[in-house]
Design goal:
By secondary structure, this protein is of the alpha+beta class. It has four domains: 32 residues; 172 residues; 66 residues, Roll (SH3 type barrels); 87 residues, Alpha-Beta Plaits, CATH 3.30.70. It contains eleven helices and ten strands. The strands form three sheets. The chain has a five-stranded antiparallel sheet. A three-stranded antiparallel sheet has the order 6-8-7. A hairpin with a 4-residue loop joins β3 and β4. It is elongated, with a radius of gyration of 48 Å. The relative contact order is 0.05.
Length: 425
């Protein structure tokens, strides 16, 4: 190595490496001092919370053995509930007891652990300061209360199962959505109320400021989502009032169609033209709803016109034919007999009115019946020689000897007919 390179290496050692080593040594000394200080503070804090002068080994041994026994009891309880008792419960026909047992299994084990931990630590209470004993007791009590809240939270599944079975009895999808909303709402409410109760009454935490902030935030959210909330209450109205259900044909705000879906925000209606219309539930709640499928019967009115040269006997026969067709038809009822009358002399025809009621809400079945009835009316009228009239006008020609026109000329206030005029000439 050349002397020049040796000088560069020595210069680098003195300029860069030695100051770095000196800085690292100083940092290590500071870290060691900080560690010693932290250990001293920890020891002093331990003496504040624990009375170590009263330390005895049997107290620790009792705590360890008690904790092990508690864990074993909790495991045994979980095994008994999950295996033995569950096998016996499965023999029953209902599923509710299975869900109840499944919901209570793990929370019961947590309750046993909480109680066993507190009981196992009783001999150590002499070593605890008043503050440490109070904190430990609150922790154990909070754990026990959490097990109860957990059990209630899991029991929501039982209520959800019962409500879901009730919802399956109807063909309304909103019922299933309401059940899901009830399940989620109950779970959130149980979690929040349990956390507030444990934090405020057991752990003595100050959650007033948190609640105030949550109230302000909830007010802001409610103001921003007022349309969504209005739609939600509209869906609640649909659920409680039940003006229609899935598959019903309804008329809402000029929209005529079949209800395909009922949601929390809107209702989807398939029009007869095939278009899918989404109507907000808020608008449905404020609108008149005509449930066409809810009608007990369909009114059918026809007006038949026959020519003026039809004889009275044939008019009577036309009325009799209509009675033969409509009396006792396939969907008739005695309380609604057909009403058939010769009602008026029209401008160009004799009018026969027939009104009857088809007692079925099935519109397409009604249309098939109307088709068959019209074919039968046409066939029977043609057979009897009864002619249907259509709008006509009669024009009389001036040269028609049966309709000779008369002209009058006024001369000095004395009218003269065409005959007298011809005689004077």
């Amino acid at each position: 190595m050349s002397p020049f390179r040796i000088r560069i290496c020595l210069f680098s050692v003195f300029v860069f490496i030695l100051p770095s080593l000196l800085f690292a040594s100083s940092a290590l000394n500071e870290i060691a001092a900080y560690a010693d200080d932290s250990i001293d503070k920890l020891v002093r804090r331990a003496y504040e919370y624990f009375n170590l002068e009263e330390f005895e080994s049997w107290r620790v041994a009792f705590f360890v053995l008690g904790l092990v026994a508690t864990i074993l009891v909790a495991k045994l309880l979980a095994w008994f509930i999950g295996k033995k008792l569950a096998g016996f419960i499965r023999r029953t026909e209902t599923l509710v007891d299975d869900l109840v047992l499944e919901a209570l299994g793990r929370p019961a084990a947590l309750a046993v652990l909480s109680a066993g931990l507190y009981l196992s630590a009783i001999p150590l209470f002499l070593l605890f300061s008043d503050n440490a004993r109070l904190v430990f007791g609150r922790i154990c009590l909070a754990s026990f209360a959490s097990s109860i809240a957990w059990a209630i939270y899991r029991l929501v599944a039982v209520l959800d199962h019962v409500l879901h079975r009730l919802a399956q009895r109807s063909d309304n999808s909103l019922d299933d959505m309401i059940v899901a909303a009830i399940r989620r709402t109950l779970k959130v409410a149980i979690f929040l109320l349990s956390a507030m109760f444990i934090g405020q009454n057991i752990l003595h935490l100050n959650i007033t400021a948190l609640l105030a902030g949550a109230g302000v935030a909830g007010l802001a959210i409610a103001f921003a989502a007022q349309d969504t909330i209005a739609n939600f209450f509209g869906s609640v109205m649909i659920l409680l009032d039940r003006p229609f259900k899935l598959g019903d044909r309804v008329m809402i705000s000029g929209t005529d169609g079949i209800v395909e879906n009922i949601g929390f925000r809107s209702t989807k209606i398939r029009t007869l033209g095939g278009h899918l219309v989404t109507v907000p539930n808020k608008k449905i709640a404020d609108s008149e709803i005509e449930n066409i499928s809810g009608r007990p019967h369909i009114k059918h009115s026809i007006n038949l016109t026959v020519t003026y040269d039809t004889s009275p006997e044939k008019v009577e026969r036309a009325v009799a034919i209509l009675h033969e067709i409509f009396d006792g038809h396939e969907c008739s009822e005695q309380d609604f007999p057909p009403r058939i009358y010769f009602v008026s002399f029209g401008d160009w025809a004799l009018n026969i009115s027939a009104t009857c009621w088809y007692h079925s809400p099935d519109y397409w079945k009604f249309q098939e019946w109307v088709h068959r009835s019209n074919i039968e009316i046409l066939r029977r009228f043609n057979k009897e020689g009864i002619e249907f009239a259509f709008p006509t006008n009669t024009t009389f020609m001036a040269g028609d000897p049966r309709r000779r026109p008369e002209l009058a000329v006024f001369n000095a206030g004395i009218p003269k007919t065409e005959a007298s005029i011809g005689g004077n000439s």
